[in-house]
Amino acid sequence: MSSSALLRLCALSGLALAGSPVLAADIPDYGYGAAPAATGYPATWSGPYLGVSLGGGVGNHDATYSAGGAPVAGVDGIGGEGFVIDGTIGYDAQVGGNFVVGVLGDIYWSNLGSDAFAISGGTRVDGDIDAKWGFDLLARAGIAVNPSTLLYALGGYSWEKFEASFVATPGGAAGSQEESFGGWTLGAGIETKLTDNVSVKAEYRYTRFDDADYGVPGGGSINIEPSTHTARFGINYRFGPALGF
């Protein structure tokens, strides 16, 4: 291409670019406007969610060994540790700015185990007391310290099944028994959003149950009032206010 032809091409290109605003102004507006920006859920804690948690804890149980209907000995060594895993369903509502209230239910499995023994006269009774599974019906309330972080307290009703196995010596008589316990739970935690839908939490719970009697080999019974301390770390999937009710 000759130099003069190249100069003419550049000049024509410059005129085309210079005239483009005018041409654009002449194009009719059909009302489509700009493409909408992609949006997620609003920065709110409102809506239903599902979650799972994994943690551990310790048991600390009050117990008394009785024979003939009368207490005869305290039980030593009631304490133990183990893991807990749960599945949770819940609903939160953010009200009054940064105040959050909600309800939740969970079902959990645990192997919190405790060893114990009692001595009365010439008889020693050794026992293993193991948590099996349970559920909680709880309310919680908290403060959203920023759009992605919630500090909260919780409390409500708890139910759990425990199994106890006993061996009496001398003689070696043995037996086992399952009992269900109702009680209450108090706790606190922190939850942080990773995305609009996914959040993680760390939580502490103290649970105190009513007492129940376990029969022991050779006669008598052990009255047990369990309590547990657990720490749980979990992840929740939040469906957002679009599925709220």
From TrEMBL:
Main location as per UniProt: membrane
Pfam families: OMP_b-brl
Domain Outer membrane protein beta-barrel, chain residue ranges per copy: 34-239
Gene3D superfamilies hit by this protein: 2.40.160.20
Keywords associated with the record: Cell outer membrane, Membrane, Signal
GO cellular component terms attached to this protein's record: cell outer membrane
Residue ranges crossing the lipid bilayer per the database entry: none
InterPro entries: Beta-barrel_OMP, OM_autotransptr_brl_dom, OMP-like, OMP/PagP_B-barrel
The family this protein is said to belong to: Belongs to the Omp25/RopB family.
Protein name, UniProt field: Porin family protein
